[in-house]
Amino acid sequence: MLNPAHLARTDLNLLVLFRAVMDERHVGRAAARLNLTPSAVSHSLGRLRDLLNDPLFLRTPKGVVPTARAQELSYPIEEILVRVAGVLASAAPFDPATSRRRFVVGAPDAVLASGMNLLLAHMAKKAPHIDISLIHLMPGGARGSLAEPWRSSLERLEERTIDVAMLPLRTVPASFELHRLYEEDFVVAMRKGHPFRRAPTATAFCKARHMLVSLDGSPVGFVDDLLAERGLRRRVALTVPSFMMALAHLSASDLIAVLPRRLVKANAAQFRLAAVELPFERKADLIGAVVTKAAMADAGIAWLVETLMHISHQTR
Question: How far lies 178's CA from each of 92, 112, 139, 168, 173, in Å?
Fold first, then answer.
């Protein structure tokens, strides 16, 4: 355990350097980011290795890779630095009315297309100088698991390339916080006048030509799993890579698609769409604002999460 005398001699800049090397995976790039020379970074890494009794980063032909111990330390060190930044910023508290920050919000495009207009309208009144960057997030990895399809999105939160992610998750790892926004269910969407709307039975559903939003082009989704449980199948005649593209194709075809209710409701008038209930039951998804616990020490990010919750609760 580090005694008080050793702690008093510990340079906080070593932790800043650790984070830079962890992010860049390269001593030279970390040095450029910190406006230091590579030799200065190497020297400081030596001090940090002695302090933590671990090599921390191992050299490779392309840079450095963190040891298991460095990976374990990454989150605690990030949390320390965020908390220190919060303390130092307390002299000038975050004020949304005057702040000129830019926040990065990531979400599937169905979520972005359903509610971001409300966020932007709210900010135009309450935070007119704050800018927003919206990032399209899509699942990857094994279907059927919980957080696994969104692992890359959680990693982007840890890497601080996005501030808040709006994701269909009910649980998150211990280093994250999940703030409930709303429940999202699905409907069958189609162009106005589509014959399926007059007789939306399970038999008609299976006989119809379907469109599926699929980033990798796979014609299988959760609907197919639910149908298989009932001994049924459908034909996916078209896959598209985004929900907004799906809306445009529905309006000009005889295809039907299972889409989020909020997305269809928000865009039905523009694309002349109609919707009916699914011919089978499915539990609604929870859409939550996901942030790292360390990031919530930032008053600006905490304000953004609170704003997203406020807007979502208004539109229930």
Answer: 27, 18, 17, 10, 9
156-152-213-122 Cα dihedral, nearest 10 degrees: -20
Please choose, from the candidates 261, 277, 220, 267, the residue with its C-alpha nearest in 3D space to the C-alpha of residue 247. Answer: 267
Residue 99 phi/psi, 5° resolution?
Answer: -65, 145
Query: How remote is the C-alpha of 130 from its chain's centroid?
Result: 20
Q: How far is CA 295 from CA 12, 125, 234, 298, in A?
A: 19, 25, 44, 6
Tokens of 30: 């970390």
The predicted pLDDT at position 143 comes to 47
pLDDT in tens, 36-63: 999 999 999 999 998 889 999 999 999 9
Distance in angstroms between the alpha carbons of the first and the last residue of the chain: 51
Count CA atoms closer than 13 A to 85's CA, side-chain side: 18
**Per-residue pLDDT, 145:** 45
User: Looking at domain 102-182+286-314, which of 3.40.50.360, 3.40.50.12780, 3.40.190.10, 3.40.50.300 is its CATH number?
Assistant: 3.40.190.10
102-182+286-314 shares the fold of 4-89: no
Q: Are 168 and 181 in contact (CB under 8 A)?
A: no
Neighbours of 102 (CB within 10 A): 10
**CATH numeric code, 186-277:** 3.40.190.10
Q: Are 48 and 17 in contact (CB under 8 A)?
A: yes
